[in-house]
Amino acid sequence: MNHEAAGGRPGVLASTRRGEYGVDAPYAPIGFALAALVAAAGAAVVWWNTGRVITPPLIVSLFFVGNTASFLYTTRRGKFTEWARILDALALHGDERVLDIGCGRGAVLTAVARRLRSGRVTGVDLWIARDQSGNARDVTLRNAALEGVAERVAVETGDMRALPFADASFDLVVSSLAIHNLASNADRVRAVGEAWRVLAPGGRLVIADIRATRVYESTLAGLGAAVTRRRLGWRFWWGNPVAGTSLVTASKPAS
Ligand SMILES: C[S@@+](CC[C@H](N)C(=O)[O-])C[C@H]1O[C@@H](n2cnc3c(N)ncnc32)[C@H](O)[C@@H]1O
């Protein structure tokens, strides 16, 4: 069973995903590409005046070309591959109640839904377009329909700092690249506390994020979680290794 290339769908290649999931933080690759162009122009001027090819502006330009390529790869493909691995490692039974915090257009939401049978996955989001291009509730619902999982998906509009769900209502809570978007660590701690509140005893919480993952780890440890944190590979770099993604996994004791 090759979930890896399939974004979670056994035997189906990632390129056959039917939904359209946009670009995360779309201003970032545009900024990288503009920086590459400006530096390339500088390299051209230096070459014209001196005849030298390998120059600092050329190296800066190549660096930003690499950042642009890495970012676009991660947002369009690498993120799906890594999440397929993460979800496969969870070995879901298929009957879980799952919450995806900051689900956006549903990249993780629909990958979870493919792994459920009688279970359901709920996405919650505020649909902020600067965080993901074309971000909208209707787009997410359309993606669920295109992927053939609409009957296992629900979508709510809500703020992750005050989740509109009862205590202990989910067996698994996931969040992909969402919590760092909050303005302060105080807000992030609040969001992690909310994720913990809605998690049922014996449940699991899995957060992949680009920043503040040590804050999530220490917050969860303080709440009594068994928690681990590790860096994910190059497929989840947002330009370069410094902008890599880390994974925080926590379990809630069964009461
Ligand atoms: C970079 S996108 C990631 C979306 C999705 N998880 C994925 O991996 O494709 C971050 C998401 O967090 C959402 N978000 C930001 N602040 C939020 C908040 N306070 N409450 C709920 N969602 C929020 C944004 O609207 C956006 O959909």
Which properties best describe this structure?
7-stranded mixed sheet, 7 strands, 6 helices, 40% helix, binds S-adenosylmethionine, elongated, disordered N terminus, 255 residues, alpha/beta
> What portion of residues belong to β-strands?
15-25%
Mean pLDDT: 94
Order of helices and strands: HHEHEHEEHEHEE
Biggest β-sheet: count, sense, barrel? Answer: 7 strands, mixed
How are the strands ordered across the major sheet? 3-2-1-4-5-7-6
Integer-rounded radius of gyration: 20 Å
- Give the helix proportion (percent range): 25-40%
Question: Please, how many helices?
Answer: 6
The total count of strands amounts to: 7
Q: Describe the global form.
A: elongated
pLDDT < 50 runs, ≥5 residues: 1-13
**Structural class by secondary-structure content:** alpha/beta
Termini separation comes to 35 Å
Each distinct ligand: S-adenosylmethionine
Short description:
The protein has six helices and seven strands, in the order H-H-E-H-E-H-E-E-H-E-H-E-E. With 255 residues, it is α/β, with parallel strands linked by helices. It has a seven-stranded mixed beta sheet, sandwiched between helices.
Explain what the structure shows.
By secondary structure, the chain is of the alpha/beta class. 40% of the residues lie in helices and 18% in strands. The chain is built from 6 helices and 7 strands. It has helices at 27-50, 56-90, 107-114, 137-146, 185-198, 213-222, and strands spanning 97-101, 120-125, 153-157, 170-176, 199-209, 226-231, 246-251. It has a 7-stranded mixed sheet with strand order 3-2-1-4-5-7-6, with helices on both faces. Helix 4 links the parallel strand 2 (120-125) and strand 3 (153-157). The longest helix has 35 residues, at 56-90. It is elongated, with a radius of gyration of 20 Å. The relative contact order is 0.14.
